[in-house]
Design goal:
single chain; alpha+beta; 8-stranded antiparallel β-barrel; 2 helices; 8 strands; 16% helix; globular
Length: 148
């Protein structure tokens, strides 16, 4: 497995050094995990434990760029909150990413969220979430998706 840094600057440097994304996964289930410094993971904890995505486990990629979030609540796993995947330019620098866009009619704050993914050499994806809201727009929230 590719070692992942535990500092935000290290994670972002790794993300920006990864090769551009060229394909969207098809029919693949990924388990997700927040990564980075403890303070940053703690900031994202309320969104992933009390909101629409409470019990978030990862993402299920279907065909044609259709993606759903995986959540587990009371021992039952569900696919919720549809996302559209595309290959797009990275929002911060150059190169392509797998861009995961939440529909505008998705519940707040997810209608303000974009996930950008780049493949790691070991088959996982390094992801960066940004929230299009004042004060936190500049703060990336990193995660890793591991094929299940």
């Amino acid at each position: 497995m590719t070692p992942l840094p535990n500092t935000l600057s290290g994670i972002m440097a790794l993300f920006e050094s990864l090769p551009p994304a060229t394909t969207i996964p098809d029919n693949t289930r990924f388990l997700g995990q927040s990564i980075g410094p403890t303070w940053l993971i703690a900031m994202g904890w309320p969104l992933l434990n009390f909101g629409t995505l409470a019990g978030w486990k990862g993402k299920q990629f279907h065909d044609n760029g259709r993606v759903l979030n995986l959540v587990e609540r009371k021992g039952i796993e569900s696919e919720i909150v549809p996302i559209q995947a595309s290959i797009a330019d990275y929002s911060k620098h150059s190169g392509a990413v797998v861009n995961l866009s939440y529909p505008s009619d998705t519940t707040f704050p997810w209608n303000k969220v974009t996930d950008e993914l780049r493949p790691l050499p070991d088959g996982r994806f390094l992801g960066v979430t940004t929230v299009d809201l004042p004060l936190i727009k500049a703060l990336p929230y990193p995660f890793v998706l591991t094929p299940d």
